[in-house]
Amino acid sequence: MDRRALGRAGEDAVAAALAARGHVILCRNVRTRYGEIDLVTADRGDLVFVEVKTRTGDGFGRPLEAIEPRKQRRLVRLARAFMQERGVLDRGCRFDAAAVLMTREGRVLRVEIVPDAFDVPI
Amino acid sequence: MLARVRSAVIHGIEAHPVDVEVDVGRGLPSFTIVGLPDAAVQEARERVRTAIRNAGYDVPARRITVNLAPADVHKVGSSFDLPIAIGVLSATGQAHPQKLKETMLLGELSLDGTLRPIVGTLAVALAARKTGITALVVPDGNGSEAALVEGVGVHAARTLGDVVGHLETRALLPVRHAPPFDPSTERGDGVDFSDIRGQSSARRALEIAAAGGHNVLLVGPPGTGKTMLARRLSTILPALTWQEAIEITQIFSVAGLLSAGSGPVHVRPFRSPHHTASSAAMVGRAPARPGEVTLAHRGVLFLDELPEFHRDVLAVLRQPLEDRVVSVARIHSTVTFPAAFMLVAAMNPCPCGHRGDSRRECLCTPPQVARYLSRVSGPLLDRIDLHVEVPWILPAELLSAPAGESSAAIRVRVQRARAMQRARFAGTPLCNAEMTPRQLRRHCRLSETEQAFLRGVIERLGLSARAYDRVLRVARTIADLEESNDISAAHLAETIQYRAFDRPLRLLG
Questions:
Q1: Which positions in chain B touch A95 (Cβ < 8 Å)?
Q2: How far are the Cα atoms of A56, A105, A112, A118, B124 from residue A108, in angstroms, in the given order?
Q3: Would the CB atoms of A90 and B27 count as touching at under 8 Å?
Q4: Which ipTM was obtained for this model?
Q5: Closest in B26, B30, B32 to A92, CB measured
Q6: pTM, full prediction
């Protein structure tokens, strides 16, 4: 599988896992002015912005560690743009982080979801 | 939702009320603290968040804004953890505290939700009483200290959960009672004047110093007991009054020198900063770090090797010696700390220390000696009433000398002399050393014969006019020790012995 297909498969797995937890999937790979958000869902009235990291084997460090402060700030900027474009800036929202571990053939080994993974950095 | 919790911040050694407002709103999740927080207050975010979770509550993904009002006062320290946590719990509807209006909260949170002791609790309790707050919730380790203030109910809590239970009136915390106050002058380390053999004139000088509150300079070769003598001075000073004990406890509390769970300070402080101390260490730092002169308040500040201190350190001592307080000015604020201490300084007669020593030859050249002595500036010496020589004693003499009088026996005489002074001044000043020039002229009147005697001595020894006032002041104390209303020629004669530095010829060889 190529990298794009792997990423796509990982997002599918996370969307399925979130739906099973009661999230309503709103959009996938939604484009804003500043870039793309992997997944936007609604969880009990809160908007949830999800960043998905897919890996095959953990030779390059744990996937969740890849979401470091700079990526967090980027995601916050994307979320703000998303809410602004749709006029929902006053909605409660949060950021979840998801990690998917797969085999090279595209079999999902593990899905890990961290709800409320970080705050808006100052 | 908005919650308002009362707390306080330390400025100098006093506390000022601070309102902690917490708002939880919609929007991108964030946790912001505004109102001039310092680094320790900023870090409260991480402690509060974790402590709340570990105490079994939740920090929801909401926009949390904490405002510390008034906004123009710098907020320092870790004591805002508890009020912020209670504010978050209340604003998110997880707790329903009913006693927030009349209660002041302070405490540092540990990650597991337990409360850690903080500094300055006594000052906060005093401020609470002044603002009309009736209850105070503090960490368990600070309970005894806060309970010293009457009129404020002090509740000591161990965990965040305890505080929530108390404020919701589900599980009230008991009111702490003040620990007993016993102003004993026995120091914990058991030092006593009876440890000192020989050195009768130095012992006498320290007794006079204690009786009149005079500053002392001890001059002598190394190893003659200058440090030993100074250390024992606080054991013959009068016992602490309640008011003095509260002042000292408040200072020690702000400085973080009070051990957790301890009550009021019972003994006069003895501080001996090393001669490498900086002037900031000596006078303190704004907004809330008392220096050595303040830590020695109502006690003794001992400066060993006086000429070795940095020149600017000696210069900053002049204000506290004159005004009994020290002001520290910084760009954003000026703080005044109390600094009513007795100064005891010690020095060698020359750089090598052996000038005038019968056993060893002094290797210093006259210019070296002059430079050494000149480091101690005139204005500082001016504030030191008693200059005492502490000579070398022969070992044989030392062994045969009887054990000296005990501190307790000397203290009886000191307290009697202090009683004379209290009666004379009726309140202010406290002792002879603090007399104003006008009081000096009124209370130290000399008869014709004594005046003539003093004039003769001054001429013969070449004493300065400045020294004249010093002599009268000390003579007054010596007369008080004998419970005599008049200053006699004998009192004056003894006083002259304690002016070694005003007789430059002798010291400069």
A1: 29, 61
A2: 9, 9, 11, 25, 59
A3: yes
A4: 0.72
A5: B26
A6: 0.87
